[in-house]
């Protein structure tokens, strides 16, 4: 029961964060429900893969972003009739690895402060490199996974952004 509650909390907060990210770009109102669904399911999938199947953050982020990418194609084509990018970009933003980015910057600052103490400087530089590489790799896999449906379904995904739609 604790697993289900944790999963639902993770999905709920990811959906709410995606709404905030989406609202900044002022998309049509009809795009908010699929954005919430994609963010919640994608982030929930990543959480489950990492916490219960032992998948690392890079692999779990790749699988979740592929799910969000194909989901945005399905929602954009058959439900809300809007381009995929309107759906997948805000849905992916809650999966940016903020703690790794924060720790990379913090380690870099601590490295600069302690650069004259060799043992501390080496430790902080290793921490910086580790956090930076993980953050960069996760961000890269989020981009690759979300754009994969565009490459696989090129003709039909291309037409999604070329048709004229009525605004809601």
UniProtKB/TrEMBL annotation:
A Pfam family per the record: ThrE_2
Membrane topology value: Multi-pass membrane protein
Native species: Porphyromonas endodontalis (strain ATCC 35406 / DSM 24491 / JCM 8526 / CCUG 16442 / BCRC 14492 / NCTC 13058 / HG 370)
Family indicated by similarity: Belongs to the ThrE exporter (TC 2.A.79) family.
Name listed for the protein in its UniProt record: Threonine/Serine exporter ThrE domain-containing protein
GO cellular component terms attached to this protein's record: plasma membrane
Cell compartments where the protein resides: Cell membrane
Chief site of localization: membrane
GO BP terms, alphabetized: succinate transport
Positions of transmembrane segments: 57-75, 87-113, 133-154
InterPro entries tied to this protein: ThrE_2 (IPR024528), ThrE_Dicarb/AminoAcid_Exp (IPR050539)
Residues in Threonine/Serine exporter ThrE domain copies: 11-151
Keywords of the record: Cell inner membrane, Cell membrane, Membrane, Transmembrane, Transmembrane helix
């Amino acid at each position: 029961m604790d697993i289900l509650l944790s999963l639902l909390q993770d999905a709920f907060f990811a959906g709410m964060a995606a709404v905030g990210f989406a609202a900044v770009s002022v998309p049509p109102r009809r795009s908010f429900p699929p954005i919430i669904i994609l963010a919640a399911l994608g982030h929930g999938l990543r959480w489950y893969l990492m916490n219960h199947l032992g998948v690392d953050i890079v692999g779990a982020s790749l699988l979740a972003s592929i799910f969000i990418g194909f989901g945005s194609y399905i929602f954009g084509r058959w439900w809300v009739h809007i381009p995929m990018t309107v759906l997948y970009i805000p849905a992916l933003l809650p999966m940016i690895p903020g703690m790794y980015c924060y720790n990379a910057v913090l380690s870099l600052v601590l490295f600069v402060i302690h650069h004259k103490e060799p043992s501390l400087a080496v430790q902080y530089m290793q921490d910086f490199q580790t956090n930076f590489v993980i953050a960069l790799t996760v961000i890269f896999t989020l981009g690759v996974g979300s754009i994969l449906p565009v490459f696989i379904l090129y003709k039909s995904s291309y037409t999604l952004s070329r048709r004229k739609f009525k605004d809601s």
